[in-house]
C-alpha cells in the first residue's frame, strides 16, 4: 500500500472508534495500578511493616476464627510487602467482602465491600460492566484489538524512522502543527506499549474465539471438563481435614520453589498458586492440589510443564498490565497507557481538521455517526454499570466504599466525562465551521 493509504488506515481507526478506543486505553492505564490505588485510598489495605511475618494460611485461620459462620472463597497475599493479606469471604445472606489481615502483627485491619477501585476498573476495562448481560460484552471490548492493531502497524509505515522523532518537537507553526508534533513524539515513545497491548489484545480475542467456538477449554489443569487436563472432583470423606496451616506447610515442603500468592479450596482439594522460577507468568501458571484429608499432593504444575500454548496464555496478563516487574513496571504501563489514550484523541482531531481543510465533506457525516454510536453504547454501559455495581451490595443497594475511594472514583468518572465531552465538542465544532464555510 502507498503511504497515503497507510495514513488513511491509521487515522480512520481513530475516527470510527475514537470514543470507545479511548475508554479502553484510559481504563486500562488505571487498571494497571488499581491495587495501588486501593492501597492509597483505603487504609485497611495497608500493612504496618514489622519484624514478624504471619503466613497467608495463618491469616486464613484467623479470619475463620473471627467469623465462624463465614464462607471463605480465596485468600491472597498482597502485590507487595506493604499490602495486607486479603481474605475474600461472605457471611450467610450477605455479599462477598474483603477482610484484611496485617501480615506482620496478625491484626484484622477491617472488612470492606468486594467492590473496590480494582474491581471497578477490572469490570469496566474487561467487559464494560457486563453490558447486555452476555458474552457479547467481552467481545465488544476484544474487537477493539483490531483497530488498535491497525493503528499500531500503520504507524510504522506512516512515520518511517520513528526513532528519529523521539526528541523532534516543533515549536513553530499553528496549534495543529504543535499538536501534530506532540502526537508524533508521544507515538514514538509509546510505540513499544502499543505493540505489547495490540499483541496481547489480539491474543485475548483469539483465546475467546477458541474457547467459545472450538474446545471450550479455559485452563490446562483444573477440576472440571473445561480443563485440558481435568482432575476428578474429590468427594467428601467421613474424617476431619488437616488444618489450613498444616496443608500450607505440605505445599511449601512439596514446592519449596513456590512463592504462594493465593490459597483456596477447589473441587474438594486444597489449592495453592503463585510464582516460581518461570518469568512473566500469572500466578495460576504454578499451582498445586493437595488432598486435605490425607495431605497427599495430587497434582503439581509449573508454568513450563503446560506446553507452549498455555505458557503463552499465562504470559499475556503480566505483559498486558505490566505487573511482572513490581510497582515501577506498573507505573511505566500507567504513564504510557495515558499516552496511548492521548494519541487516540489527538490523532482523530488532527485527521478531521486536515480533511476539512482539504474540503472533504463526507468526513463530517462520519464524525457524527461515530459519536452517536459511541455515546449510545456509553449510555448502555452506564445503565449496566449501575446494575453491576449494585449487585455487589446488599439487597440491590450500592456497596459502601471508604470515603476516599468513593471520592476518587467520582472524580475519575467526572474527569473522564469532561475529557470525552470536550473532545466531542471540538470535533463537532470543526464540523460546524466546515459547514459554515462551505
UniProtKB/TrEMBL annotation:
Residues 54-110 form the PepSY domain. Keywords: Membrane, Transmembrane, Transmembrane helix. Signal peptide: none annotated. InterPro entries: PepSY, PepSY-ass_TM. It holds the Pfam family PepSY. The chain crosses the membrane at residues 12-34, 136-159, 186-206, 331-352, 364-386, 406-432. Coiled coil: none annotated. This is PepSY domain-containing protein.
Amino acid at each position: 500500500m502507498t503511504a497515503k493509504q497507510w495514513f488513511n488506515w491509521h487515522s480512520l481507526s481513530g475516527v470510527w472508534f475514537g470514543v470507545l478506543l479511548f475508554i479502553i486505553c484510559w481504563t486500562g492505564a488505571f487498571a494497571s495500578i488499581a491495587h495501588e490505588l486501593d492501597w492509597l485510598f483505603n487504609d485497611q489495605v495497608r500493612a504496618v511493616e514489622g519484624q514478624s511475618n504471619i503466613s497467608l494460611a495463618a491469616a486464613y485461620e484467623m479470619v475463620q476464627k473471627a467469623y465462624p459462620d463465614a464462607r471463605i472463597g480465596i485468600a491472597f497475599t498482597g502485590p507487595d510487602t506493604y499490602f495486607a493479606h486479603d481474605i475474600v469471604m461472605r457471611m450467610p445472606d450477605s455479599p462477598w467482602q474483603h477482610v484484611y489481615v496485617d501480615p506482620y502483627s496478625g491484626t484484622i485491619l477491617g472488612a470492606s465491600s468486594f467492590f473496590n477501585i480494582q474491581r471497578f476498573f477490572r469490570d469496566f476495562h474487561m467487559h464494560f460492566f457486563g453490558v447486555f448481560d452476555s458474552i457479547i460484552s467481552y467481545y465488544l471490548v476484544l474487537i477493539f484489538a483490531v483497530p488498535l492493531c491497525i493503528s499500531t502497524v500503520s504507524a510504522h509505515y506512516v512515520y518511517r524512522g520513528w526513532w528519529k522523532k523521539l526528541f523532534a518537537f516543533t515549536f513553530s507553526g499553528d496549534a495543529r502543527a504543535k499538536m501534530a508534533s506532540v502526537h508524533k513524539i508521544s507515538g514514538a515513545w509509546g510505540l513499544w506499549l502499543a505493540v505489547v497491548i495490540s499483541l496481547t489484545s489480539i491474543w485475548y480475542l483469539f483465546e475467546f474465539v477458541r474457547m467459545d467456538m472450538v474446545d471450550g477449554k479455559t485452563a490446562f489443569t483444573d477440576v472440571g471438563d473445561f480443563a485440558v487436563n481435568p482432575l476428578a472432583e474429590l468427594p467428601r470423606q467421613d474424617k476431619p481435614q488437616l488444618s489450613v496451616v498444616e496443608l500450607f506447610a505440605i505445599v511449601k515442603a512439596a514446592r519449596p520453589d513456590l512463592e504462594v500468592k493465593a490459597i483456596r479450596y477447589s473441587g474438594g482439594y486444597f489449592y495453592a498458586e503463585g510464582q516460581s522460577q518461570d518469568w512473566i507468568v500469572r500466578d495460576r501458571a504454578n499451582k498445586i492440589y493437595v488432598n486435605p484429608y490425607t495431605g497427599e499432593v495430587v497434582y503439581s504444575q509449573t508454568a513450563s510443564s503446560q506446553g507452549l500454548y498455555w505458557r503463552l496464555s499465562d504470559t499475556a496478563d503480566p505483559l498486558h498490565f505490566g505487573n511482572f516487574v513490581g510497582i515501577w513496571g506498573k507505573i511505566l504501563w500507567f504513564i504510557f497507557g495515558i499516552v496511548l489514550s492521548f494519541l487516540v484523541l489527538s490523532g482523530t482531531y488532527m485527521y478531521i481538521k486536515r480533511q476539512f481543510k482539504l474540503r472533504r465533506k463526507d468526513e463530517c457525516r462520519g464524525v457524527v455517526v461515530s459519536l452517536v454510536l459511541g455515546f449510545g453504547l456509553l449510555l448502555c454501559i452506564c445503565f449496566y454499570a449501575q446494575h453491576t455495581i449494585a449487585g455487589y451490595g446488599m439487597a440491590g443497594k450500592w456497596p459502601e466504599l471508604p470515603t476516599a475511594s468513593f471520592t476518587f472514583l467520582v472524580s475519575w468518572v467526572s474527569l473522564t466525562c469532561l475529557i470525552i465531552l470536550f473532545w466531542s465538542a471540538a470535533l463537532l465544532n470543526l464540523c460546524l465551521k466546515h459547514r459554515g464555510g462551505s
